[in-house]
């Protein structure tokens, strides 16, 4: 048997360090066994998936040195490797389940589903909706089908009992079927959910081992049941521990920069980031901190993974990056690293149109464009002294902007302007007044290049990191303030 692993990211935003972490371990496991590593794009979310996000995923994983044997850009014998191009395959398999009685068409409306959940909650019943809960009378089912009502395809699931799932690290995992709902397999627009597409694609692509985050443990019974329904052998499962913030909470963009683009923009070396991700819950046999990807693959053993939540500590990564710079880069290599990082034609060409109209001598370029070549700006409370907003309003404005930008999937000037205008209307502020603190937070100065253009060039995660940094230097948002802000933001 040839070992085959895969990574299947969704192109719905910036490439996440958690994706790179799982990709790294899948790659190392495959190479340890002389196997193959596959990259598949799960782009069934038609609203949020973008070609730009897909390209960022490919670019960032390659930047880290994580190459794949098969994928949408390199091809392979099991393509296509984008789920959006495999619709007929999923429809065929969904029909197989319907014909065998393992799935059913559900014509329930969203309002009816909400009522069902509320009534069950009021009755103190478990929340998982079962086929019996969703069933309509035969006449009503026939009427809705005859009238062409939209429907989804759901899987049949047991009402009680226990499902046992075997895990390479955790052994036998027991999950109560009562907590497993009648999962949607095919949405009303004909696109599959993760659960159907994941199982069908893994089987057809010959995946033998699935290393994924532990957040998928509760979904494992559904996947195991689908394999049984289809009569296929399920790949071996390995649920990796989730990356954690220093406070042990799940790593999230609201607390820590999570985009690989951020670490690339900040000037971290790819080999240092890959090395650090390799230390997330795993260790070399000799416990050394610094090792190359080739060394990790040569020494890899999945049983050395610790189930304790690995802490993604930015200070530790920064220290390790410094070790790489001092120990591995001579002057020529350091110069090349600087060119690769920011002083390259592609990046500088984005900046020149911003500075050319504003300078009379070349010596003015560096001070004016410095924010494009730095990390977090050197600002403090005094930097905002001339901003004509009360402290709470200032904090609220910056926090609202961070939250708005978290939901932006297409990072371009037009989209960002729309978000800023929405906030301007909410706060009843003119653009000049609203953008004044944003200018300082993002560029570090009240007089610099266009802040909107700077946000586009810097990218989403770096922009949000600078806004969060400004909130911190202004004293941060208290718990009481956060509750008030969140309530008002929901109304927005």
UniProtKB/TrEMBL annotation:
Return the SUPFAM superfamilies for the record.
An anticodon-binding domain of class I aminoacyl-tRNA synthetases (SSF48163), Nucleotidylyl transferase (SSF52374)
User: Which residues does the annotation say bind ATP?
Assistant: 253
Q: Does the keyword Nucleotide-binding apply?
A: yes
Residue ranges of every copy of the Glutamyl/glutaminyl-tRNA synthetase class Ib catalytic domain listed in the record:
3-319
Q: Which PROSITE patterns match?
A: AA_TRNA_LIGASE_I
> Do you know which InterPro entries this protein is assigned to?
aa-tRNA-synth_I_cd-bd, aa-tRNA-synth_I_codon-bd_sub2, aa-tRNA-synth_I_CS, aa_tRNA-synth_I_cd-bd_sf, Glu-tRNA-ligase_bac/mito, Glu/Gln-tRNA-synth, Glu/Gln-tRNA-synth_Ib_cat-dom, GluQ/Sye
Subcellular location(s) of the protein: Cytoplasm
| GO cellular component, as recorded | cytosol
Motif 'HIGH' region location, chain numbering: 9-19
What Pfam family is a match for this entry?
Answer: tRNA-synt_1c
What's the chief localization of this chain? cytoplasm
What is one process in the GO biological process aspect for this record?
A: glutamyl-tRNA aminoacylation
User: What's an example of a GO molecular-function annotation for this chain?
Assistant: tRNA binding
Keywords of this protein's UniProt record, alphabetized?
A: Aminoacyl-tRNA synthetase, ATP-binding, Cytoplasm, Ligase, Nucleotide-binding, Protein biosynthesis
Give the residue ranges of motif 'KMSKS' region: 250-254
Catalytic function, reaction form: tRNA(Glu) + L-glutamate + ATP = L-glutamyl-tRNA(Glu) + AMP + diphosphate
Bilayer-spanning residue ranges: none
Protein's UniProt keywords contain Protein biosynthesis? yes
Q: What EC number(s) would the UniProt record show?
A: 6.1.1.17
> Which residue ranges does the record assign to the Aminoacyl-tRNA synthetase class I anticodon-binding domain?
334-471
User: Which superkingdom, per the lineage?
Assistant: Bacteria
**Which protein family is it in?**
Belongs to the class-I aminoacyl-tRNA synthetase family. Glutamate--tRNA ligase type 1 subfamily.
PANTHER family in the record: GLUTAMATE--TRNA LIGASE (PTHR43311), GLUTAMATE--TRNA LIGASE, MITOCHONDRIAL-RELATED (PTHR43311:SF2)
Tell me, how does this one assemble?
A: Monomer.
What this protein is reported to do is described as: Catalyzes the attachment of glutamate to tRNA(Glu) in a two-step reaction: glutamate is first activated by ATP to form Glu-AMP and then transferred to the acceptor end of tRNA(Glu).
Name under which the protein is recorded: Glutamate--tRNA ligase
Q: Which organism is it from?
A: Franzmannia pantelleriensis
Gene name in the database record:
gltX
């Amino acid at each position: 048997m040839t070992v085959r692993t895969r990574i299947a990211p969704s192109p719905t935003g910036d490439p996440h360090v958690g994706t790179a972490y799982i990709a790294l371990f899948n790659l190392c496991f495959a190479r340890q066994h002389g196997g193959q590593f596959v990259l598949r794009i799960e782009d069934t979310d038609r609203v949020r998936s973008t070609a730009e996000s897909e390209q960022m995923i490919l670019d960032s994983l390659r930047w880290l040195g994580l190459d794949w044997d098969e994928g949408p850009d390199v091809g392979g014998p099991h393509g296509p490797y984008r789920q959006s191009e495999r619709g007929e395959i999923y429809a065929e398999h969904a029909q197989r389940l319907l014909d065998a009685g393992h799935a059913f068409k559900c014509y329930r409306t969203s309002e009816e589903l909400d009522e069902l959940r509320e009534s069950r909650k009021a009755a103190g019943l478990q929340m998982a909706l079962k086929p019996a809960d969703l069933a309509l009378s035969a006449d009503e089912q026939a009427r809705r089908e005859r009238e062409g009502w939209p429907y989804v395809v759901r899987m049949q699931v047991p009402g009680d009992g226990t499902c046992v799932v075997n895990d390479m690290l955790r052994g036998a995992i027991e999950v109560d079927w009562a907590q497993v709902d009648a999962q949607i397999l095919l949405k009303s627009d004909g696109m599959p959910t993760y659960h159907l597409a994941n199982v069908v694609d893994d089987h057809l692509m010959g995946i033998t081992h699935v290393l994924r985050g532990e957040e998928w443990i509760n979904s494992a019974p559904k996947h195991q049941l689908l394999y049984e329904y289809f009569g296929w052998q399920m790949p071996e499962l390995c649920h990796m521990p989730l990356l954690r913030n220093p406070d042990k909470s799940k790593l999230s963009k609201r607390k820590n920069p999570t985009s690989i683009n951020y670490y690339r923009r900040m000037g971290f070396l790819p080999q240092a980031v890959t090395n650090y991700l390799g230390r997330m819950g795993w260790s070399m046999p000799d416990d050394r901190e610094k090792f190359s990807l080739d060394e990790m693959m040569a020494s890899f053993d999945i049983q050395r993974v610790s189930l304790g939540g690995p802490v993604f500590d930015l200070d530790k990564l920064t220290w390790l990056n410094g070790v790489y710079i001092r120990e591995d880069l001579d002057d020529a290599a350091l110069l090349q690293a600087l060119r690769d990082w920011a002083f390259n034609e592609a990046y500088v060409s984005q900046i020149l149109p911003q500075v050319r109209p504003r300078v009379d001598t070349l010596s003015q370029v560096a001070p004016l464009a410095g924010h494009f070549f730095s990390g977090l700006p050197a600002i403090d409370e005094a930097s905002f002294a001339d901003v004509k907003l009360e402290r709470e309003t200032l904090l609220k404005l910056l926090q609202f902007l961070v939250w708005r930008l978290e939901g932006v999937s297409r990072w371009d000037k037009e989209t960002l302007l729309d978000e800023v205008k929405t906030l301007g209307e909410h706060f009843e502020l003119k653009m000049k007044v609203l953008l004044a603190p944003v200018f300082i937070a993002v560029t570090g100065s009240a007089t610099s290049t266009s802040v909107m253009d700077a946000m586009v060039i810097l990218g989403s995660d770096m922009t949000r990191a600078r806004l969060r940094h400004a909130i911190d230097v202004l004293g941060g948002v208290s718990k009481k303030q956060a509750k008030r802000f969140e309530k008002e933001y929901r109304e927005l």
